[in-house]
Backbone:
């Protein structure tokens, strides 16, 4: 057997696994979205656009898409600026604790989303940390509802997605060195100007990647909006979940998933355009 | 602002951000030692009662075993398949190699919610819904891109001169692989396996769709519990889960560093 053939044979088992667990499900999902509605008489039409028509005609689904994008944008606009200082700190720190601090910033990524969401339920809950503290200090006379809603979902998502942003920003800071900033400061630039003219532009590739990642992960998150939303946050993923598991309307779930995939794809294309322009401004 | 004040403000900001980042984990750890059904700071009474409750809870115990079993099998398969594919992708000199490399990483970009719906629709006619095999299969799929990437990273850094040297001294192809290439690759394979285990162990979205009463994973059991209650028992369980996850995290950090394992 030639080595060339052998190398191709080595790919085979992995390819089979990916076809079964990735290609087939996505293809089946697309197929399912063109099926007629569940309670229509069998053998009626092979292909139906019923599910898509339902999504496009119902104002509710337009609103759900808008909610999804809105929460994604708010989460991105909060997560990236909050992660930037940590990434800057980690890239410069010379402390012996640097390794530990870096691991601490990334490790939450590897603890279950369910557990971290639970943590936020405890913090923001009616009898939670914040309400009890504010009541104890006499700031409040009645507990406020912080949980069960968009606010709680956004807070939890920001925290859950920060490690992804930190890693992306760190990965994109190759050209940024302290010397450049010191040079600018020596030439008399005030601190904010150094930050806006040197630090941010040079970190831009990483910031862009982080924004993409956070947006894409937040619009496809299910556990957090489901648990923190308390049934009052309607985004594409929660709608897909209820259509699949409760309403058992698989064509509709398929159409909504396709919509989410399309949203995903368009954001990634936008990102690639922006990244290309960043690398080659001409 | 003078330099000292600036340093203090900067340190304060970083500390505050770290507190925010670690807040849910710290809070969960504190509640786990409390006996009352809600959080109050400082905990008035400390006890291990919640931990005893977890051990006695059959649902949690079985879910923990299920999750560990699924994680171990999925991670092993994923590392074996991933290592084979990495050899093909890194060492192979055939046309379309770049396309294959891209294909192997592409599931990383697919949203889990969409994969979950697709998997549910695919596994149902095969009778694999609500089974361990279905979950293992799904978890091999989502972890394979990570194992391929991490093992490929190690393989492309191996100096061909080492293998050449062994061959010149008369070692057979199999011996070179067993005594030179694989030992050098071991940290990466280990880290890949640990990442795969953690991804499988923490995965909740796909489990929500394809797991069920006959095959409940731990994240799913916790999810179902906290939908109705937020008592300290689940906090104790969470602490146990975090401690279990800590070991793989330390192994990864020691072998190839966490940032390189999960980063792009």
Residues:
């Amino acid at each position: 057997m030639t080595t060339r053939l052998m190398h191709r044979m080595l790919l085979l088992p992995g390819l089979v696994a990916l076809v079964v667990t990735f290609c087939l499900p996505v293809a089946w999902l697309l197929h399912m979205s063109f099926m007629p509605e569940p309670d229509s008489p069998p053998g009626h039409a092979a292909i139906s656009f019923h599910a898509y028509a339902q999504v496009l005609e119902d104002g509710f689904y337009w609103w759900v898409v808008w909610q999804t994008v809105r929460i994604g944008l708010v989460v991105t606009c909060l997560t990236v600026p909050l992660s930037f200082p940590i990434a800057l700190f980690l890239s410069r720190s010379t402390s012996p604790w640097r390794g530990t601090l870096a691991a601490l910033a990334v490790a939450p990524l590897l603890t279950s989303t369910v557990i971290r969401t639970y943590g936020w339920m405890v913090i923001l809950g009616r009898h939670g940390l914040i309400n009890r503290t504010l009541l104890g200090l006499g700031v409040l006379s009645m507990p406020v509802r912080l949980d069960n809603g968009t606010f709680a979902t956004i807070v939890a998502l920001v925290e859950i997605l920060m490690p992804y942003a930190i890693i992306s920003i760190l990965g994109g800071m190759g050209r940024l060195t302290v010397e450049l900033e010191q040079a600018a400061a020596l030439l008399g630039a005030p601190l904010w100007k150094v930050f806006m003219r040197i630090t941010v532009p040079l970190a831009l590739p990483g910031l862009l990647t982080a924004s993409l990642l956070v947006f894409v992960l937040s619009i496809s998150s299910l556990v957090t909006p489901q648990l923190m939303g308390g049934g009052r946050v309607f985004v594409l993923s929660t709608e897909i979940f209820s259509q699949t598991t409760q309403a058992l309307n698989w064509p509709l779930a398929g159409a909504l998933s396709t919509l989410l995939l399309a949203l995903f794809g368009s954001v990634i294309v936008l990102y690639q355009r922006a990244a290309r322009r960043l690398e080659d401004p001409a | 602002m003078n330099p000292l004040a600036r340093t203090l403000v900067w340190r304060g900001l970083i500390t505050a951000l770290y507190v925010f980042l670690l807040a849910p984990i710290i809070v969960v750890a504190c509640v786990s030692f409390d006996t009352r059904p809600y959080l109050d700071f400082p905990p008035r009474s400390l006890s291990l009662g919640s931990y005893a409750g977890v051990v006695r809870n059959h649902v949690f115990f079985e879910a923990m075993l299920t999750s560990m079993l699924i994680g171990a099998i999925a991670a092993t398969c994923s590392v074996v398949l991933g290592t084979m594919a990495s050899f093909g992708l890194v060492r192979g000199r055939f046309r379309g190699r770049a396309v294959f490399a891209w294909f192997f990483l592409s599931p990383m970009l697919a949203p889990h919610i969409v994969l979950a719906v697709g998997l549910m629709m695919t596994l149902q006619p095969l009778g694999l819904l609500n089974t361990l095999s279905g979950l293992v299969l799904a978890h091999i799929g989502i972890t394979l891109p990570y194992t391929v990437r991490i093992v490929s990273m190690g393989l492309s850094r191996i100096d061909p001169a080492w293998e050449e040297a062994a061959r010149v001294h008369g070692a057979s192809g199999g011996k070179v692989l067993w005594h030179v290439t694989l030992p050098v690759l071991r940290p990466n394979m280990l880290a890949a396996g640990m990442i795969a285990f953690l991804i499988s162990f923490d995965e909740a979205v796909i489990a929500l769709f394809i797991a069920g009463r006959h095959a409940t994973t731990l994240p799913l059991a916790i999810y179902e519990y906290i939908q109705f209650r937020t008592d300290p028992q689940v906090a104790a369980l969470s602490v146990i889960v975090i401690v279990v996850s800590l070991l793989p995290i330390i192994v990864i950090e020691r072998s190839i560093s966490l940032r390189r394992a999960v980063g792009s």
